[in-house]
């Protein structure tokens, strides 16, 4: 009986030491992983990195180190970790294949946050739709349309095609076309349009508005009118100037042939 007791005591001593060492590895490793997480978060915060990326990267660093610590602790107990790592790798591959769409959205969102093709508040076209950006998340981008609908676009779809950012430059050119009759005075019409533009304080002085003859239509002489405005004033100026020019033409006896061609209808609502 005594040899068995001695053998049990020997095994308890050996494995007890290994168990204590494994627990120390887990405790110290977890503590080190938390420190690394905080350091990464502070460093990225000081560099002005987006909070979403900062949170993701710091948490990723924590879990990667924690996984390494767990594997080291299991190795200390004598468990073969090679097969364990292979199982984790296979499981990761299976999950990656199952979630490849979500991973594509995640990768696209990560790149958008880094390169910033647009920011919250910008009016953009992308992913087959258009609207004002409300949220930029890791998997989706949320837009608000001018008629107050919320559209959630997967980030992979958003980056799959061109993105048009109408707000990035701060200013926009308003393109309008006004037609007059062939019997009307071109110089007089140009002067009337110029006075209407000059009366609107939203129209920028630089660059100066362009007022040019664009074409000689079947029933009208067409002016192309291109003033510059701040991006937020675009549609207000477009609608107001259209109305004011019509009234000014009426007051000055300048005819507008019917039907008036609307070459602006192809543009998207901002």
Automatic annotation (TrEMBL):
Keywords tagged on the record? Cell membrane, Membrane, Transmembrane, Transmembrane helix
Q: Which residues form the Mechanosensitive ion channel MscS C-terminal domain?
A: 174-256
A Gene Ontology molecular function term for this protein is:
mechanosensitive monoatomic ion channel activity
Instruction: Return the similarity comment.
Output: Belongs to the MscS (TC 1.A.23) family.
Membrane topology, as annotated, equals: Multi-pass membrane protein
One Pfam family for this entry, by name? MS_channel_1st
Put simply, this protein is called MscS Mechanosensitive ion channel
One of the record's GO cellular component terms? plasma membrane
Main site of residence? membrane
InterPro entries reported in the protein's UniProt record: LSM_dom_sf (IPR010920), MS_channel_1st (IPR049142), MS_channel_C (IPR049278), MSC_TM_helix (IPR008910), MscS_archaea/bacteria_type (IPR045275), MscS_beta-dom_sf (IPR023408), MscS_channel_2nd (IPR006685), MscS_channel_C_sf (IPR011066)
Boundaries of every Mechanosensitive ion channel MscS domain copy: 102-167
Instruction: List all membrane-crossing ranges.
Output: 12-33, 53-79, 85-115
Keyword Membrane attributed = yes
Domain Mechanosensitive ion channel transmembrane helices 2/3, first and last residues per copy: 61-100
Instruction: Report the locations given in the UniProt record.
Output: Cell membrane
Biological source species = Desulfosudis oleivorans (strain DSM 6200 / JCM 39069 / Hxd3) (Desulfococcus oleovorans)
């Amino acid at each position: 009986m005594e040899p068995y007791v001695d053998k049990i005591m020997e095994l308890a001593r050996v494995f007890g030491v290994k168990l204590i060492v494994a627990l120390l590895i887990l405790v110290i490793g977890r503590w080190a992983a938390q420190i690394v997480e905080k350091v990464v978060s502070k460093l990225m915060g000081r560099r002005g990195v987006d909070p979403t990326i900062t949170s993701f990267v710091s948490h990723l660093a924590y879990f990667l180190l924690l996984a390494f610590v767990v594997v080291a602790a299991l190795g200390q107990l004598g468990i073969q970790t090679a097969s364990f790592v292979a199982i984790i790798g296979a499981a990761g591959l299976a999950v990656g294949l199952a979630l490849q769409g979500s991973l594509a959205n995640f990768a696209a969102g990560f790149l958008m946050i880094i390169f910033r093709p647009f920011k919250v508040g910008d009016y953009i076209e992308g992913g087959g739709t258009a609207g004002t950006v409300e949220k930029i998340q890791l998997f989706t981008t949320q837009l608000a349309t001018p008629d107050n609908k919320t559209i959630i676009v997967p980030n992979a779809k958003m980056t799959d095609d061109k993105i048009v950012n109408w707000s990035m430059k701060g200013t926009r050119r308003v393109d309008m076309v006004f037609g007059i009759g062939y019997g009307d005075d071109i110089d007089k019409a140009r002067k009337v349009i110029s006075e209407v533009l000059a009366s609107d304080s939203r129209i920028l002085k630089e660059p100066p508005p362009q007022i040019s003859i664009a074409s000689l239509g079947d029933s009208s002489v067409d002016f192309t009118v291109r003033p510059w405005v701040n991006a937020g004033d675009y549609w207000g100026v477009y609608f107001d100037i259209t109305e004011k020019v019509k009234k000014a033409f009426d007051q000055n006896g300048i005819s507008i042939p019917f039907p008036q061609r609307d070459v602006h209808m192809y543009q998207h609502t901002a």
